[in-house]
Amino acid sequence: MIKRILRYGEDALRKESQPIKEITDAIRELVKDMFETMYKNNGVGLAGPQVGENINLFIIDTGNGQKLVFINPQIIKASGKEVMDEGCLSFPGMHEKVERALRVTAHSIGLDGEPYEIKAEGLLARAIQHELDHLSGILLVDRISKARRFQMKHELARIAAGESLDEDIVEDNVEDDVKENDKINDKINDKGDDIAEAQKGETGVKG
What residues are labeled active site? Predict the structure, then answer.
């Protein structure tokens, strides 16, 4: 079942999540729904708080077909630094440069109830850090500077009001396409004018 993804501005996203004491059928069903919801929205990860469940749970699939479930996770080692564009399903259309550790080692419990350890680098490491933030009520906007947050106050207000910044991208692309078509048409018209002038010249000589 597709879940509604909470947006920036909703209180549940700021609450501290609670440890999961037992992996029940309800938890398994929630995980199934979360994967379905994440794929529907073209996401890489999704945390419990984002679907209104303030429990220590998140899922990740970076596109390699491996479904990762993290229950009561914690990062036990981190190294290196990397700055990359980062998005979030709770901030539709927003992408900001965020500094994260390049490599992490995380300890977690799987859906089978067994503990495991995972070493990650690059996108997977970034996704783990991003989703772990959600469990502490930390959001993407908290990882950018105060100055940048001030610059984006109108965009953030729009997201909180239910809008998506993706709409701006679509409008920009449409405007770019129109401008490009205008340029092509101008070139065609100019070429037509040149040909017409040439034909006039030829006609004058022959006549």
Answer: 131
